[in-house]
Design a protein that fits this description.
Strand content: 15-25%
Shape: globular
Number of strands: 10
Helix content: 25-40%
CATH architecture of the largest domain: Alpha-Beta Barrel
Mean pLDDT: 86
CATH class of the largest domain: Alpha Beta
Number of domains: 2
CATH superfamily of the largest domain: Glycosidases
Number of helices: 9
Distance between the termini: 16 Å
Strand order of the largest sheet: 1-2-5-9-10
Largest sheet: 5 strands, parallel
């Protein structure tokens, strides 16, 4: 149970590690540089730092196309650098918020690469596939003019895969219990590193059941409940801060 509701009065400073402070002079910001600015941020009255994605990524979508949830982009430093930063922030009374991107991965992620190569791999069902291009594939695109469809054909898999966003960001099948278990594992890993809040982006897509046979969007609120209970159990003050693209009455009816 969260007793102090710290997030109600938090002063949140959002930043991208890559563009904030460069400590080694290579032209890219890093955690060592961010460490040097913690006293400055504390002096501003900041009580929470919200980090844009900093894990390993090909970088086609500002780091939102993750290829490894358990590693830091080498340009920003190491996991050790991140832990040192999170501990230093905690010493100054500053919590760390991160964007936990689990609606999709990069198409370069080992999960997707194995899924497309081997139809018998367990990772095949970690993504959303169809033998034929589903009807209405050109509807619901997020980036009109750039994104022509939400389904793309993969010549290796010989099947169509679903992507809510760019074609290089295949959606995870969040209805799969194994995918949900992996998300919990990722959340637990990040909590161990000192994260207080998971800023889940975008929650509305992550919650919905996906597939060629899904005709009406159905939110999986029970999954959200499991994740919230897990966070509270592991770290009482941790919360999920989410982008929820649903009407207020609908969210309230599901106690979200």
């Amino acid at each position: 149970m969260i007793n102090d509701l710290w997030y109600k009065n938090a002063v949140v400073y959002c930043l991208s590690v890559a563009t904030y402070m460069d400590a080694n002079g290579d032209g890219v910001g890093d955690f060592s540089g961010l460490m040097r600015r913690l006293d400055y941020l504390a002096g501003l009255g900041v009580t929470a730092i919200w980090l844009m994605p900093f894990q390993t990524s090909p970088g086609k979508d500002d780091g939102y196309d993750l290829s490894d949830y358990y590693a830091v982009n080498p340009a920003y430093g190491t996991l050790g650098d991140f832990v040192e930063f999170s501990h230093a922030a905690e010493q100054r009374g500053i919590r760390v918020i991160i964007d936990l991107v689990v609606n999709h991965t990069s198409d370069q992620h080992p999960w997707f690469q194995e899924a497309r190569r081997d139809p018998k791999s367990k990772y095949r069902d970690w993504y959303v596939w169809s033998d034929k291009k589903p009807p209405g594939a050109d509807k619901g695109v997020v980036f009109p003019g750039v994104q022509k469809s939400t389904w793309n054909y993969d010549p290796v898999a010989k099947a169509w895969y679903f992507h809510r966003f760019y074609e290089f960001q295949p959606d995870l099948n969040t209805s799969n219990p194994e995918v949900q278990a992996e998300i919990l594992k990722i959340m637990g890993f990040l909590l161990q590193l000192g994260v207080s809040v998971s800023g889940w982006m975008p929650f509305h897509s992550s919650l919905r059941k996906k597939g060629a046979d899904v005709t009406r969007p159905t939110e999986q609120y029970d999954m959200l409940q499991v994740f919230s209970e897990f966070l509270t159990w592991r770290k009482g003050e941790a919360i999920i801060l989410a982008e929820a693209n649903v009407r207020l009455r609908r969210a309230a009816a599901n106690d979200v």
